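Supplementary notes (optional reading)

For those who missed the lab, this is the record we used. Protein: NAD(P)/FAD-dependent oxidoreductase. Length: 423 residues.
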Amino acid sequence: MPPSDVFDIVIVGAGPAGLMAAIAAGRRGSRVLVCERQKRSGKKLLASGGGRCNVTNALGDRTFASRFGEKSSYVFAALRKFGIEAICNFFESIRVPLKANDGIHFFPESNKAASVVEALVQACRDCGVVLRTGCDVTSIQIKDGRVCGIIHSGGIISTYACVLACGGKSYPKLSGCERGYELASQVGHNIVEPVPGLVGLITKETWPGSCAGISVKNAHIRIKENCSGKRSLTQKGGLLFTHHGISGPAVLNISSAVSRMLLNRPEVRLYCVMQEDLDAGAWNKRFLEWQKESGRKTVSNCLKPFLPARLADALINETGCDKEVLACNLSRANRLRLVQILTEGVELTITKSEGWDHAMVTSGGVLIREIEKGTQASLLIKGLYIAGEMIDCSGPCGGFNITWALSSGFCAGSAAACEIPAC
Ligand SMILES: Cc1cc2nc3c(=O)[nH]c(=O)nc-3n(C[C@H](O)[C@H](O)[C@H](O)COP(=O)(O)OP(=O)(O)OC[C@H]3O[C@@H](n4cnc5c(N)ncnc54)[C@H](O)[C@@H]3O)c2cc1C
């Protein structure tokens, strides 16, 4: 076998997790090869944040990790080695300073995701990492319970360690695929069924379409019971009506849970409160005042200071009233129903998500119980490491997923480098 086909570490995937793993290992003196099946590195990263790349955020490691719910301690273990401050310093050191105009979300100062990808690739080259694009890894070779090589579209490579950083299934146009799950399950890892995450939701009701384009700043979305039927899930934030349903940050952030529930049932009911400022008593008082003082005004007009007109009309319709109903003609039953919709939420029936083509992240993937906290080492196969989105660990929108990819990639690359005999 020619010497070029022997590497200390082979990294599968040149997204943020794989490139960061390569830099961490390369800087520790390992001979590293990155195999990327696409023609170029970091395709998803290039499109991230609307082409601007929301790399991380200013929440602080502890709060940041808490947004991963039951996986927070797992994420925190990686952040302790390569956390938000370290990520910002790292990008500064490779001449891509980050800035947070809103004080929270960090983007490159250039506002160009391409500058992030180019700098990561250059940092790889600077420490001698070999990057092969168009190189599809098809299997991992194992001998006596440890990695000894990989097979790719062009041949076999001998190696001491392998980092799987293949990403998830989301956005196939931008390199999303199931290859990582196939490779991990070939060597015995269990995969939590992947479902689309950070994705818009399709409603059975057609009225949201009549509000398409309207966004509500502080919506409150609630699912009465989660997958295990135990407690209610809630999200607060922006909601955007689309032609076939709902989207916006609050919806995206609850979408993984909804997608998972839809695996076992045909529909999921959500309750959306559009305006949380007033409680039922205050709304009732207002409606009674409007009936007395502005009786010839339509209810829709009365609601104008609180809700966009088309949305107010749709909610009035939901009570069974005509949207032109005058305040003085609103029956007690309809008033109470409208107040209930305004305070407890309008019910929406979700039948599916917008699907893999639009999902920004994959929820599900390699079972985290089988990967060591803080090193990303496989607990099943020696010399195997797994990082980034291909693990059953995903966060909300706002820089969480790229940070997780970078942080877990760093841990995997550093730990893999320490396995190499000369290290
Ligand atoms: C439109 C969009 C916008 C986003 N915006 C943001 C954002 O602003 N902030 C944020 O935090 N997150 C964002 N995300 C999510 C974020 O981009 C991903 O979570 C992140 O890229 C995951 O990194 P990764 O390295 O794990 O996987 P990926 O970036 O998916 O990289 C994996 C790589 O592995 C390669 N690969 C797979 N299998 C093989 C194989 N067998 N052989 C060789 N190569 C292989 C793939 O081709 C791919 O290039 C966005 C996602 C999308 C789709």
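If you only remember one thing from this example: The longest strand covers residues 155-164.
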